Amino acid sequence: MSSNVTPFSAEAWRRNADLYEAIRTLPFNTELAAGALRQDRFQHYIVQDGHYLADYARALAIAAAKADDANGIIQFSKAATEAIVVERALHETYFARFGIDRQAFEAIALSPACHHYTAFLLATAYAQPYPVVLAALLPCFWVYGEVGKDILANATTPDNPYQAWIDTYGGEDFQAAVDGAIATTDRVAAGETLATREAMHLAFQRAMQLEWMFWDSAHRLEAWPV
C-alpha cells in the first residue's frame, strides 16, 4: 500500500461519524452524564456489560493469538486481562451497591443486543483474518473512550452516582489503551489490499451499530420477547 493512503482509523471514523453522534446523544448517555439515569437502566447495562466483557476478553485473546508480531501478542493479551480484572472491579463496585452477587449475576441471561454483539465478535475473531478482527474490536475501545471524554468534559452534576464509570472511561489510562488499539489497527491496515480494508470497514461499521444497540437496549430494559 502507498504511504499516502488515508489511515484506516481516519476513514472509518469519517464513514461512521453520524453513527457515533447517534451513540453520543442516546438518552442513556445524556442521562448518565446528568446523573439522572434511572438505576434500573444502569443496573441492566452494568450486568449486560459484565457478560459482554467476558466474551470481549475472549475475542481479544484470539486477536493476540493471531497477532503478526510480539508486540501485538503482548498488547491484546494485556487488554484481555484488563477487560476481566480492571473493569470487573468497576462492575463489582456497582454490583455491591445494587445487591447483585456473583450467583445472581450469572443467572441473568444475555439480552438480545448483548448476545448479538458477543456472537458477532467471537465469530469474527475465530473466522476472520487478523486485520478484520482488529477492526471489529476497535469500536468498543474507541467509542467508550470518546463517550467517556465527552461526558467527563460536560458532566457538572455533583455526586453523580455514575462518577466511577465516567472516571474510568474518560481517564488517561483508558485513553492510552484506545490510542494503542488505533495505532496497531492502522499499522496492520496499511499493508493490506483494498479488499481487506473494505472488509475491515464492514466489520467496524457492524460493531459501531452494535454499540448503539447495546446502550439503547439498556435504556429500554430489553428482554427476550418470547
UniProtKB/TrEMBL annotation:
<comment type="similarity">
    <text>Belongs to the TenA family.</text>
</comment>
<dbReference type="GO" id="GO:0005829">
    <property type="term" value="C:cytosol"/>
</dbReference>
<feature type="domain" description="Thiaminase-2/PQQC">
    <location>
        <begin position="27"/>
        <end position="219"/>
    </location>
</feature>
<dbReference type="InterPro" id="IPR027574">
    <property type="entry name" value="Thiaminase_II"/>
</dbReference>
<keyword id="KW-0784">Thiamine biosynthesis</keyword>
<comment type="function">
    <text>Catalyzes an amino-pyrimidine hydrolysis reaction at the C5' of the pyrimidine moiety of thiamine compounds, a reaction that is part of a thiamine salvage pathway.</text>
</comment>
<comment type="pathway">
    <text>Cofactor biosynthesis; thiamine diphosphate biosynthesis.</text>
</comment>
<dbReference type="GO" id="GO:0050334">
    <property type="term" value="F:thiaminase activity"/>
</dbReference>
<dbReference type="InterPro" id="IPR050967">
    <property type="entry name" value="Thiamine_Salvage_TenA"/>
</dbReference>
<protein>
    <recommendedName>
        <fullName>Aminopyrimidine aminohydrolase</fullName>
        <ecNumber>3.5.99.2</ecNumber>
    </recommendedName>
</protein>
<keyword id="KW-0378">Hydrolase</keyword>
<dbReference type="InterPro" id="IPR004305">
    <property type="entry name" value="Thiaminase-2/PQQC"/>
</dbReference>
<dbReference type="GO" id="GO:0009228">
    <property type="term" value="P:thiamine biosynthetic process"/>
</dbReference>
<dbReference type="Pfam" id="PF03070">
    <property type="entry name" value="TENA_THI-4"/>
</dbReference>
<dbReference type="InterPro" id="IPR016084">
    <property type="entry name" value="Haem_Oase-like_multi-hlx"/>
</dbReference>
